């Protein structure tokens, strides 16, 4: 029976239909992330404008008045639509003049992305051959659709009406084709330029330009994209320049490393602004963001974007231990790399395997391994002196060996791409960040290069101790109220040397200073000992936490991550009483010795 059905499939096959069309349409619309609205509208406008005559390819983002209220408007040149095309364009998954395909921008997204935040209405006007037609999309009684309007020529309701006279009265020419989209929002009195999402979420004043630069790396250079004066924080019109062009023109240095199988890594350096604190040198005005970023780049668009604190906190995993406020990293996937945007183009997904979401951290090992030499030197020049950590490193090395901690850092998620499924050999010089002492040591087990995704069973070596003292570096690691943070991917331990327990312990020691010791000498010795003990307590807590990784039972993966968390390391740093008696003895001995030496020098 089954064989007969298969044999007759060509005569019995019937396409799947939609049982509840209203529900399906509403589900598609209301599941769409609101924040994709501007991307979809702008991409449609740019694609349409690119089909206009050279020199006449233009997109304008502005505010227009509708019943006295400002509404966001996106207008573009390019082939217009007549009444019948405008009607068809409103259907979900309909496109006019564009090829459809899962990997293409085929026209479904703009409507779907706009309607959740514009249930009052999205007005489309299009001029074709000197005539302007209009359609209004919105939601009424729980159903999305074309809203009835009164046709001025007939006085009858219709879903597509001619508005040539109204468009001319609004200042639009009918000499060439164009299309315009106006967002009415959810309320008649809603200013959709300042408040596009009806306060859910609320947006900053410069949200529009920020949203564009957070998504688009490349813009079609043949299309002029203009922001009118009423949508910019400076109150004057501006032409958008792509991030790609800004990097080439305004960044101090940038390099691209080409890797096999369609991967490229862009390393970008934008130094501090010479006069404006908290800005980088590429800063022009309040329109264009100048903060450093990390992101995945595909098809000219940014995914998995990390900006400002979200980037500086994760940057050490990518080999940017210091200077992350001025160093950006973009991982570019070629057009034929086996990934595909999700249905709403907010994320990328691998085409193979379980079709997991593409994560920026998937490429952290490759980014660390392939940093250009100039960037390595730049990062090292920003690093603080490591002398204080040398004795502590020796102690931790002995402790790691004594308790037998294995070198089993968390396995990097394997990129599910056939060509990259085997481990990638990393260059010897860049396999693992090392302290200055390790760099000077002979090649050995500590210098053995890692392989991406590989677990290497060996005695763990000492994590790189990085001491942070500057307020901005402390804040970048989210250490303002914490003592330390461990980055397992890079095997680095950042220690906040300004954490209050250091000063607390130093003050406690100073109260035990011998009467003959000067205040300055006692303060110097007490601070030095307090910092050493601070490092030691945190380092020992980390080693003990790492020792939990190999436990087969009693500790799950979440427990093991918590054992080396910033919170646990901070609690260890707070215990300034653990070694107080021994520290007091050492403090008094060192102060006495130093006082005696100073006295002898003064006699001479």
Automatic annotation (TrEMBL):
InterPro entries cross-referenced by the UniProt entry: HATPase_C_sf (IPR036890)
Region (Disordered): 423-452
Domain of life: Bacteria
Name of the protein: Histidine kinase-, DNA gyrase B-, and HSP90-like ATPase
